[in-house]
Amino acid sequence: MTATQETGTAAAPWVGTRMQRKEDQALLTGRATWTDDIAPPGTLHMVVVRSPVPHARIVAVDTAAAAAVPGVRAVLTAADVDDEFLAGIPCGWPVTEDIRIPDHRPLARDEVNHVGDGVAVVLATSAAAARDGADLVDVEYAELPAVVDMADALADGAPVVHEEMGTNHCYTWPLATGDVDTAFAEAEVVVSGRYLQQRVVPSPMEPRAVVCVPDPVGAGFTVYTATQVPHFVRDILAAVTGIPDTRIRVVAPDVGGGFGAKLNVYAEEFLALVLARRLRTPVKWTETRSEHHQATTHGRGQIQDVSVAATRDGKILGMKVELLADMGAYLQLLTPGIAVFGAFTFCGLYDFGHYSFTAKGVFTNLTPTDAYRGAGRSEAAYGHERIMDDLARELGMDAAEVRLRNLHPKFLEPRTVPSGVQYDSGDYETCMRRAMELVGYDELRAEQARRRSSSDPVQIGIGFGNFTESGGLSPSKVAAGVRLQSGGWEQATVRMTTSGKVEVVTGTSPHGQGHETAWSQIVADRLGVHPDDVEVLHGDTLVAPFGRDTYGSRSLAVGGTAVHLAAGKVLDKAMQIAAHLLEADEKDLEFTGGRFSVAGTAGPSVTIQEVAGAASLANDLPEGMEPNLTADSAFDPPNFTWPFGTHVCVTEVDTETGFTRIRRYVAVDDCGVVVNPTIVEGQLHGGIAQGIGQALYEHATFDDAGNPTAGNLASYAVPAATDLPHFELEQLVTPSPTNPMGVKGIGESGAIGSSPAVVNAVIDAVAHLGVTHVDMPATPQAVWRAITAASGQTA
User: Fold this and answer.
1) Contacts of 425 (CB under 8 A, 6+ apart)
2) Is the model's pLDDT at 6 over the cut of 70?
3) 2 pLDDT band (50/70/90 cuts)?
4) What residues have CB less than 8 Å from 795, skipping those under 6 apart?
5) How much is the pTM?
6) 3-class SS string, 485-523
């Protein structure tokens, strides 16, 4: 990593520089444009009438009273809009050939299958009138039995979410390497645990919103939407509505967080488009927080049964994983694939010979699940780090020592791991030992022993979260191999204008990651300009018609690399023109500080800006060369990238109340070459906060009938700034060999390493009292009950 350099100094090097984000001034001064800010003249506001019951047949819908509300222009049900769609809302990851995929219409036709299922829409001249109208839509329901628990859903005689399927079983996806049965039969120790991944609500700062504007003189449409995936939105809207993709422009304005919840195409986007087409007027919908809890995808939702076989000295021989994954009532874009994605990292950083994994997808009468920050990999890390602590307790060994004995040795080229995939590079022991050094591990263990011996009511615990993740979600052939219906490439264009400024067009679409800053730094280094002279264009399918968008820690490793390669092509062309202008051989030129000159001489030189001007004038170019400095590049990597890290959490647990305070949090991460340390730290801060939220606070709960009991932020706990500790962060650099920049990605790492570190620390604090298990969220009540139960008392 390049030494830190202050903004405003020499033009290079910029990669590695701690510079402020270019995006922040507009965001922090109220000059950003959010989808809800957009309201063209004549806009009709849309409100969705949603089911208040988890499972029922729709007997009748009376819209007369709603239609009579002043300002209401239309009240529509499925019967009115179904013929606008060529198909239902698609699932983009059918993980097996025999997967069961229910018909999922933008509005429910005959049956509702979860609280929040859309039944009708009201369009009015104001949002208030639309809400008033929606309140008066009278829907008669014949309630049906609902299924909430995944295990119950698979039992004989359980209520069936989709009667036409006759079962709640969605799919079974297996993976096996080695000889697991023999490893377990011959093991000296077998340890098993059941770990729950509770449902969580993504809760970005900006709720979802969409505005669809028909072209007043043509047949096209502009769809403004708060999304992570404008290209996916365009392509899927076109496929479902029959409108050519060339007539759908999708714009993601400033987007206030996504966390996977905006990695989808939702019913409201389909409805806004077809209603704008029908009524030839703009249609707008903005989500409420209650709708976000009911109708936007939830994260997580797994029951994990994990077992490890080991020797008495702590060497792991094999691992078995059996998952139940909650699909919810429907399959959204990636719903079935989230658990499958975790299969490849459930073995973590650990080296052993035998592995088996089986995931079963299960339908329930709950809100659909889908990607949530760290999707699949966060769930996997939680499982493998919990079982490592359970193994250490069974063996009477230190939790750190068990881990250190099983880490892969350092490797700088791809290495095959127990799940059968190849990690790109890693130096796990150095990373873990550095985290232990920073946190003062030996001193903490000594303090823990003193507190235990003195029966201090406040005990300390130390928890580890070792992890890797399959970042840089990319290789198109690999995606096809697991039946993901999307390429993994990314596209970029870099062009120098006549004045010597630079425009970058990127197919990745940020929602807080700092692309404008990081991409400017990459291009500034390649072309010898200042980052302030680089403008990054994104999030608009008219400006950037090709792209695969932002998710899966892929933006830098795939999209940033595409930018790097396109800038390299521009530099190659500029070098040819400079050689022509200087009447020199190209191989004799050197390029430093934005200037071309003949190496080893004090002769004439030319700046890249002057070359850009000459390329535009085009009156003195090498024979046969086209004008202008511009280049496209598409990058489809040969492998994922595999960022990794060790997170260590130190908790203080009040054994009399169960209250947990995080005293210290240390994270050592390796995301390959760092472009901007400030952005890396910001991503880690946010991810760790979300992992802590899941570990201690958040739970999307439902009653036994399927009714949400945490339906908004008044009843759903998220951590506040005062609940979070200071994060002590450090970066190591093990470059990835899968891309020329050596980068790996960092956007999800904090959310992956944090929840196991926190929960392991909570349990470790009270393990001497007989507590070996606490499910997330480890609330004070949950911890107190665990202590009470371990002591043999009645809670």
Assistant:
1) 411, 412, 413, 414, 642, 672, 734, 735, 736, 737
2) no
3) very low
4) 784, 785, 788, 789
5) 0.96
6) CCCCCEEEEEEECCCCCEEEEECCCCCCCCHHHHHHHHH
